[in-house]
Amino acid sequence: MNQEIRTRTKWFMEDRFGMFIHWGLYAIPASGEWVMSERRMTVEEYEAYFRAFDPVDYDPKAWARLAREAGMKYMVLTAKHHDGFCLFDSAFTDYKATNTKAGRDLVREFTDACRAEGLKVGLYFSLIDWHHPDFPKYKDRQHPMRDCEKYRDEKIDFDRYLDYMHGQVKELVTGYGKLDLLWFDFSYDDMAGEKWRATELIDMVRSHQPDVIIDNRLEGAGDNFGSILSANPLPYSGDFASPEQIIPPEGIRDELGEPVPWELCATMNNHWGYCNFDYLYKSPGLIIRKLVECVSKGGNMILNVGPDARGRIPKESVRILKEIGEWMDKNGESIYENTICPLPKPEWGRYTKKGDVIYAHVMDAPLGALPLYGIAPETVERVTYVADGSEVNRQRGWNTAQYPDISFVSFGEDSVFTYPLPDERDTVLKIECKKREGRKPCL
Ligand code: GLC
Fold this sequence. Notes:
Elements: H1 3-8, H2 10-15, E1 17-21, H3 35-38, H4 43-52, H5 60-69, E2 74-80, H6 106-116, E3 120-126, H7 158-175, E4 181-185, H8 198-208, E5 213-214, E6 262-266, H9 284-296, E7 299-305, H10 315-331, E8 349-354, E9 357-362, E10 370-372, E11 380-385, E12 407-409, E13 427-433
Parallel strand pairs: 1-2, 1-7, 2-3, 3-4, 4-5, 6-7
Antiparallel strand pairs: 8-9, 9-13, 10-12, 11-13
Helix pairs in contact: 5-6, 5-10, 7-8, 9-10
The protein binds alpha-D-glucopyranose (GLC).
């Protein structure tokens, strides 16, 4: 991976936690953003939602505040999803928010709101477009009309689609101020790379937004990371890999063994777009632990919300985000700017590392004292709870005598007793080590 990518992604890899927002016409059928494809709906059928769209409660300021309070540092909104409907005022189509009951450019209000809350701004843009007449239909892998004989011999002008698509991307990168992130989605089969005229697209984007971070889906998707893992990434390899709904078992490295920036994208329930029957939400504790897992493997997490047809983030998501925020408020220093710790994963949780400080994320209460694997007692200066700054008991019980090379801590007064974790979701200990001649502290 090249130095340019490393420099460009610095803020991103420090910020670690973002909000993904999947929102569009599909909030009305409320079965996720693939409904047009799944139900094989024609453009005419789906356009009923265009006529009905009336997001009276759209309040991106409230979304941005919620994200900031959850400890998120950046937001990415679906400016256009696969259904082709634009939340922004594109000059190339009538199929846009300005022509719905909303009557205005919803992307502009979003970008303004993010910046007002001090958050980095990102836009998602679908390479796929099920509304455009020049997008391949028959036998395409996922087009709503893939089985429709009517399109078997249809003549399309794919270049006309590409001009349209490039034109819209240009509108986004020139019309909305500085964008921090662009999330293209996605490539499949031969619909990848230069099929999208990807080099030309990237050159255009970079000429307007030299520092914008771009995902890897002009070349790949969740199932294929593309040339970003090679020693010489292609110009459109993107700046980070985008594993979807799975945390890479061992992080992500390129073929030279160098860590590659990556971002897990994950839903809160099991849908991206609003789904009014999906109550299978992940608990705040689970999400916190998975965020820690991402960071300990050198990655980010972008967590999704799917606002409803009125523009509201579902109340279950709000509740979860507030609880995550309560934890982040106390423990954020063990997430931001943290990365892979060279010590092996401890069996009770995970280590993350920021500079010379090691954070122990304890997720499983010990019986008796907790061994800080890999950390020798004589190297430790202090161990404190991140949540309140107080000291952690480091007294050694008589029963640790057999393990002189390992530091122990305990969560109560008596180092032989067993105590519950102060925070069952993840109790974070800050381990500061003595500076020693020619050695990294603790290690
Ligand atoms: C997938 C889906 C899409 C979703 C994206 C988010 O590629 O096609 O609906 O927006 O993942 O990562």
